[in-house]
Design a protein that fits this description.
The chain has 559 residues and is an alpha/beta fold. The chain has 18 helices and 27 strands.
Length: 559
């Protein structure tokens, strides 16, 4: 049996058509406007104890759009970088950008100077919105970019009084309020203050317009901008809606715990697309690593959907306060971004009474490719291809494999990206004859469920974030005492994988601590090696290419 036939039969068993479902709207902005029209007073986003309705978020977005238009002269097609954690400011900025037809460039707040310069220059971003605690790194990078406008926000900017004043005083006392210069940027409160200039040219996007440049790495180590269009994201929202509404279940008006960072495509599509489509309520968690604050934020809330990934589930399951929460309303637990350990899934179900539905996707697919629908979960698999998605599995010679065969997963569907920004050659390498080559080795069983076997590429996934060895190696070889290096991923119970770096040093005095410190100064924290091993040489092919697979095999042999 062909894998596509197995997938189609699986959808039929669930009562779902395999065809691409109709779009709920013609753009993300129109989807938001529909929610605003019929659900204006419903809660939209909650963060740090403050809840804003759809109407309140929209009013602030209108003011920000007017400011962007009149003060910054930003116009449709211009790129705006959003360098924020999960705060109420995030949807305000993004929806303002939609109203003007700006292209969102989601930027990890933890990026280093080097990473920011590349992403801003590659995207051609004209403006950036940043949280105050990350301003210093941004300011150092700005002279090397063409960024013209900077907006700085504090976490408390959208909180009501007296909470705002109390937290302001507290952060000053604790020395946690970053010092900012007196000029050189626009404070967020000025952006959303009531103004006489409240009008702006409301953009009406076409389906084929690029609405986001979502950066991802690659085997070359160069981070590439994935061109996501209104069409690709809207089709993916429609596909996902079909899968989450399987059977008699309706998720209308559900409250969703959203700890995954909105700058990640999985959380972006969910919180800015899927949740407005169901007129839902997104409970934003700014720092999911702070487990006590996380639990404190959700303990008094009745939530029906919980979104997470393996490393987060592990941390929460170990927390005594989390164990005491009321999970009686929890209907769906969604997992994506990294492999879900079976033991973790079992522990979660035992505690919460809710089965974890694991899914699979990639940035280049906007991002969802497959899901485990509620009531049809198969633990240990990435689920069934979502409606409107064709799949095939090919071996190293391009020969299509049948059910049970092992090979690279290729995907075709309306959710596939337009291509890589200004990189036609690399686009042609991954989209061949309309098929997106995922780089993941999979097998598909007779019931249509996909199981990830291995990665064709050497990508490392640390707590759901893609880490690319070439990028790390290129950064570390800038160290004057490093001759050669190679990065691999090694298994970790909490993060799924962590980075191990093999180093050939020019001087014996170089230490593991010095290597790690150098890496910390040039790359985001999750990319920094957890382990460093010094070698006299590295295994290579006869043409001098380092054999990472051999290093990985040596590492696995130690287990």
């Amino acid at each position: 049996m062909q894998v596509q036939d197995a997938a189609q039969q699986a959808l039929q068993r669930m009562g779902v058509s395999g065809q691409q479902p109709a779009l709920p709207a013609q753009s993300l902005l129109q989807l938001w406007q529909q929610a605003l029209a019929d659900s204006a007073d419903l809660p939209s986003f909650t963060c740090l104890g403050q809840t804003l309705s759809y109407a309140q978020i929209d009013l602030l977005a209108d003011r920000a759009a007017a400011y962007f238009s009149h003060q910054f002269n930003l116009q449709a097609g211009d790129r705006i970088a959003v360098q924020l954690p999960n705060l109420l400011q995030y949807p305000v900025i993004v929806i303002a950008a939609w109203k003007l037809g700006l292209v969102i460039v989601n930027t990890n707040p933890m990026y280093t100077h080097r990473e920011l310069v590349h992403q801003f220059n590659d995207s051609g971003a004209k403006a950036v919105v940043v949280l105050d605690q990350f301003y210093d790194t941004l300011a150092a990078a700005l002279p090397e970019t063409d960024i013209q406008h900077v907006v700085v926000t504090r976490a408390i900017d959208l909180l009501p009084q007296p909470k705002k004043s109390i937290l302001t005083a507290l952060t000053k006392i604790l020395g946690k309020r970053p010092a900012l210069p007196v000029s050189g940027f626009t404070p967020f409160p000025e952006l959303v203050a009531a103004s006489e200039q409240s009008d702006y040219p409301l953009h009406s996007p076409s389906l084929d317009e690029i609405c986001a440049l979502q950066y991802t790495g690659g085997t070359t180590g160069v981070s590439k901008g994935v061109m996501l269009t209104q069409s690709s994201i809207m089709h993916n929202i429609a596909q996902a809606l079909e899968m989450v509404n399987v059977g008699e279940q309706s998720i209308e008006n559900f409250t969703v715990v959203s700890p995954l960072p909105l700058y990640h495509i999985y959380a972006y599509m969910l919180s800015m697309g899927l949740i407005p489509a169901i007129r839902g309520h997104s409970l934003l968690i700014p720092d999911p690593r702070n487990i006590s604050a996380f639990v404190g934020a959700i303990k008094k809330v009745k939530f029906e959907i919980f979104c997470g990934l393996n490393s987060l589930f592990v941390a929460l399951l170990q927390d005594k306060a989390f164990q005491k929460l009321d999970f009686s309303e929890l209907k769906n637990t969604l997992s994506g971004g990294m492999a879900l350990m079976e033991s973790v899934a079992n522990d979660w179900q035992q505690l919460t009474g809710c089965v974890v539905s694991e899914g699979y996707g990639m940035t280049e697919a906007s991002p969802v490719i497959s899901m485990n629908p509620s009531g049809f979960e198969k633990i240990g698999t990435a689920g069934i291809p979502i409606p409107g998605t064709d799949i095939k599995v090919i071996d190293e010679n391009g020969v299509e494999q049948k059910v049970g065969g092992v090979g690279e997963l290729c995907v075709r569907g309306s959710q596939v990206m337009k291509g890589y920004w200004q990189r036609e050659a690399q686009t042609a390498e991954v989209i061949v004859d309309g098929w997106l080559h995922t780089g993941d080795i999979v097998t598909v069983d007779e019931e249509g469920y996909i199981k990830i076997v291995d990665r064709l590429k050497d990508m490392i996934i640390v707590s759901g974030f893609n880490v690319y060895p070439n990028e790390l190696e290129q950064a570390l070889t800038q160290h004057p005492q490093v001759l050669e290096c190679a990065a691999i991923g090694v298994a970790d119970d909490k993060a799924g994988e962590v980075v191990k770096m093999f180093v050939v040093a020019s001087e014996a005095s170089l230490t593991e601590a010095q290597v790690i410190e150098f890496c910390r100064s040039t790359m985001a924290g999750y990319k920094v090696p957890k382990f460093v091993e010094f070698r006299d040489d590295l295994p290579k092919t006869n043409v001098g290419k380092v054999l990472r697979k051999e290093l990985k095999a040596q590492e696995q042999a130690k287990i």
